[in-house]
Design a protein that fits this description.
20% strand, alpha/beta, 20 strands, single chain, Adenylosuccinate Synthetase, Chain A, domain 3, Adenylosuccinate Synthetase, subunit A, domain 2, 34% helix, four-stranded mixed beta sheet, binds inosinic acid
């Protein structure tokens, strides 16, 4: 019954797509359990770039995939990703794609409200992806959202939409002085989307339980990052879901006792998009040097926004490793640091007169920390062709070892380029690393 959860340990964009694709090879089932199409998982296969926002990355490896009820699904995006896959020769059918009927749907009014709310927040805007994620989760928690199962049942969909749209239109017209959204504008096209999605609807918890009973290897593909978790992240500058290990249990309907562990994904440095505190952030040319180094650059896969860049933040990683129980780590984009003579790494924070190795929980305190850096020697050679740990320059090994010391987790995988084969595995297999008792 092996099952592991992949969690981004920073603010998202750690390169989870590439790592999930790599680990998917040894998996039988790949599951998305939270977030929506705010995610952008990029995978390079034989020179072809695949960007998936909603479908589990496992589709590229032709694995059976599932979308748990914790995901908010924009039906248009789902259907167009299924079509895009088909055009690339990846056939998705009810046998290899199971979508929970309890997933809440994102409608155009969620997207409109997301944008209006951000405008209203003014200088304290979160910098959302404008995909309607927060408003869709709000409707779910408010118990007024419409689920994919409703969408596929016309009479139920009609009744729920009439009731809810009435409330939404009151809100839009009286609060925002915006035009109302006509019922037919949503009902007709979304009823059609519902029909097309219906064959994929399944009882995902039951499917996963049976797969686990049969000894199938299940990989839970977290989206965003632990610091964007609505509970454990840098609230309010977070997304609206539980991006950490526990999110896999609630978002897929899978019990914690059946999960072997969490593989945390960390970038060799730090980036974030959107607003909020970022203790090791660099400005101007220094940030540009990281942003433009490496083959991919640091620009959002979903919005194309330039990412904020800074050095590796040990205290933050130590905290998220602790919260998520990430006993193993994958370090990504190590190749991006190859051009630096020396590389600063944040090892501690000074808060008032105190020194701490672990980031504080309080956002206000986090915004005011003084970062204590250590300078590690760079390696100044191209490492993108290195395949084995032993062949990495000693300075690069030292950098990885320092990350292990700081985080208390074992680095089992190192990514030195965007392609599948630009990966160094330090264990016989990733699932195996969670079963050897360490
Ligand atoms: P939302 O998820 O669109 O509501 O955005 C909330 C915050 O999470 C914003 O700061 C976004 O930039 C950030 N965010 C959402 N999804 C991702 C992601 O996949 N990678 C990085 N940041 C993200």
């Amino acid at each position: 019954m092996p099952a592991i959860v992949v969690v981004g340990i920073q603010w998202g964009d750690e390169g989870k797509g590439k790592v999930v694709d790599f680990v998917a090879e040894e998996s039988d089932v790949v599951v998305r359990h939270q977030g929506g199409n705010n995610a952008g998982h990029t995978v390079w296969v034989e020179g072809i770039k695949h960007i998936l926002h909603l479908l589990p990355t496992g589709v590229i490896r032709r694995k059976t995939c599932a979308i748990g009820s914790g995901v908010v699904v924009d039906p248009r995006v789902l259907l167009s990703e299924i079509e895009e896959c088909r055009a690339k020769g990846i056939e998705l059918h009810p046998g290899n794609l199971k979508i929970s009927r309890n997933c809440h749907a994102i409608f155009p009014y969620h997207i409109r409200i997301d944008t209006l709310l951000e405008k209203r927040r003014g200088s304290s805007a979160i910098g959302t992806t404008s995909r309607g994620i927060g408003p869709a989760y709000r409707d779910k928690i408010d118990r007024v959202g419409i689920r994919l199962g409703d969408l596929a049942t016309p009479a139920r969909f009609e009744a729920r939409l009439r009731e809810h749209l009435g409330y939404i239109n009151d809100f839009l017209t009286s609060f925002y002085k915006e035009p109302a959204i006509p019922f037919e504008e949503i009902y007709e096209p979304y009823r059609e989307h519902g029909k097309r999605i219906e064959p994929f609807l399944a009882d995902v918890p039951k499917f996963l339980s049976e797969a686990s009973d049969l000894g199938r290897k299940i990989l839970f593909e977290g989206a965003q990052g632990a610091l964007l978790d609505v509970d454990a992240g840098t609230f309010p500058y977070v997304t609206s879901s539980n991006t950490g290990t526990g999110g896999a249990c609630t978002g897929a309907g899978f019990p914690p006792q059946r999960i072997n562990g969490c593989l945390g994904i960390v970038k060799a440095y730090t980036t974030r998009v959107g607003a909020g505190p970022f203790p090791t952030e660099l400005e101007g040319e220094a940030a540009d040097r990281i942003r433009n180094a490496g083959p991919a650059g640091e620009f959002g896969a979903t919005t194309g926004r330039p990412r904020r860049c800074g050095w590796f933040d040990g205290p933050l990683v130590k905290r998220t490793v602790m919260v998520n129980g990430a006993s193993c780590l994958a370090v990504t984009r190590l190749d991006v640091l190859s051009e630096f003579d020396s590389i600063p790494i944040a090892v501690k924070y000074r808060i008032g007169g105190e020194v701490t190795e672990i980031a504080p929980e309080d956002l206000t305190v986090l915004s005011e920390v003084e970062v204590v850096y250590e300078e590690l020697p760079g390696w100044k050679v191209d490492i993108s062709k290195v395949k084995r740990w032993e062949d990495l320059p000693s300075q690069a090994q030292g950098y990885i070892r320092r990350i292990e010391d700081i985080s208390g987790a074992r680095v089992v995988l190192i990514s030195v380029g965007p392609n599948r084969d630009e990966t160094i595995l330090r264990a016989p297999s990733v699932f195996g690393a969670f079963q050897d008792g360490r």
